[in-house]
Amino acid sequence: MALRIIVHEPDPVLHQIAKEVPKITPNIHKLLNDMADTMYHAEGVGLAAPQIGILKRVIVVDVGDEHGLIEMINPVILEKEGEQLGPEGCLSIPGLNGDVRRHQKVKVKGLDRNGNEFTLEATDFLARAFQHEIDHLNGVLFTEIAERVYEVPRESRD
């Protein structure tokens, strides 16, 4: 288990566009493992490589549903439909949440850790998590697109 340090706003790396991964190497496997360990340790539901200071298009997501841990390299949203407005937080912006309007359903394409392309259709919370993490790869934070940003009460953070 290797935990990485989560970068916090206003670190400039959070506002940069991550680069595509041209080749999957053992370093990418280690990155995926470390990202999952870091996300679980921080009790998050998603993590993008820029959040640990690495400008690569790599995300991990686990919203606690039947999909379990989803690792995706070079993710792209192919289709989007519907609309949902709901609360979001971010491991890189502790203490703040926001009401963010997202698509209700998305179809996402990417590579798994072995370089195999796959697509996944996600709805509701999983769709929100994918959109949030892919935004990170494009240098966009939820606070920039939220309709309302508010502090999380201290007792909710413990």
From TrEMBL:
Question: InterPro entries from the xrefs?
Answer: Peptide_deformylase, Peptide_deformylase_sf
Check the record and name the Gene3D superfamilies matching this protein.
Peptide deformylase
Annotated residues that bind Fe cation are located at C90, H132, H136
EC no. given is 3.5.1.88
Described by its record, this protein's role is as follows:
Removes the formyl group from the N-terminal Met of newly synthesized proteins. Requires at least a dipeptide for an efficient rate of reaction. N-terminal L-methionine is a prerequisite for activity but the enzyme has broad specificity at other positions.
Q: Which GO terms describe its molecular function?
A: peptide deformylase activity
Q: What is this protein called?
A: Peptide deformylase
Q: What are the alphabetically sorted keywords of the record? A: Hydrolase, Iron, Metal-binding, Protein biosynthesis
The chemistry this enzyme catalyses reads: N-terminal N-formyl-L-methionyl-[peptide] + H2O = N-terminal L-methionyl-[peptide] + formate
One Pfam short name: Pep_deformylase
Q: Which gene encodes it?
A: def
Entry superkingdom: Bacteria
The catalytic residues are E133
* Sequence similarity: Belongs to the polypeptide deformylase family.
Cofactor(s), names only, from the UniProt record: Fe(2+)
Cofactor annotation remark: Binds 1 Fe(2+) ion.
